[in-house]
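> call design_seq(struct)
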C-alpha cells in the first residue's frame, strides 16, 4: 500500500500540527479502501483560499476547505485539499474546540469529497456527517453539527467544498 501525503503550511498566524492532519487524511483514505495514490494538503490563509474559491468555483469569498480531485480509479486517488487556518480560527470557538481540531475536521471533510462523498442534499450531508463523525471519533473528536444547522440545515463546516 502506497499512499503519499504531503502537507504545506503557507500561513504563519496559527500553529499547525502537520502530523495530526496527515494522520487524519491517512485514516480516511485507508478507511475508504484507498490503497494507492497521493494527496497534497495545503494550510493557507483566507486570502489564498478566497482566490482559489473565486477562480475555481466562482464564489467571491473565503471558505473553509476546497478539494480538488485530480485522478481516481478503484482503490486509488490523486488529489489536493486546501484548508484555511484563518477560517478555522474564526469558527472553532462557536463549535467548542481548538483551531487544530477545526483543521482536522476540514481535512477529513475534504478527503471524504475526494473519495466520493458529497453534501449537496440532506441525505448526502447526513451520510458525510456520519463518516466525519466516525473518523473524527478515531482522533478523539466529536463534531457538533446541531449548532450549525440553524441556517436551513447546512453545516458551515465544509459546505463550500469544491470537487
Amino acid at each position: 500500500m502506497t499512499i503519499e501525503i504531503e502537507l504545506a503550511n503557507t500561513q504563519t498566524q496559527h500553529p499547525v500540527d502537520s502530523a495530526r492532519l496527515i494522520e487524519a487524511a491517512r485514516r480516511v483514505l485507508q478507511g475508504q479502501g484507498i490503497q494507492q495514490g497521493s494527496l497534497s494538503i495545503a494550510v493557507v490563509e483566507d486570502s489564498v483560499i478566497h482566490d482559489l474559491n473565486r477562480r475555481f468555483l466562482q464564489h467571491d469569498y473565503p471558505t473553509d476547505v476546497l478539494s480538488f480531485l485530480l485522478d481516481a480509479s478503484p482503490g486509488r486517488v490523486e488529489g489536493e485539499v486546501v484548508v484555511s487556518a484563518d477560517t478555522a480560527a474564526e469558527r472553532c470557538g462557536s463549535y467548542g474546540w481548538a483551531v487544530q481540531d477545526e483543521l482536522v475536521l476540514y481535512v477529513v471533510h475534504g478527503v471524504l469529497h475526494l473519495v466520493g462523498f458529497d453534501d449537496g442534499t440532506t441525505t448526502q450531508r447526513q451520510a458525510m456527517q456520519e463518516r466525519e463523525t466516525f473518523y473524527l471519533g478515531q482522533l478523539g473528536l466529536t463534531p457538533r453539527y446541531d449548532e450549525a444547522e440553524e441556517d436551513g440545515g447546512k453545516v458551515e463546516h465544509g459546505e463550500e467544498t469544491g470537487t
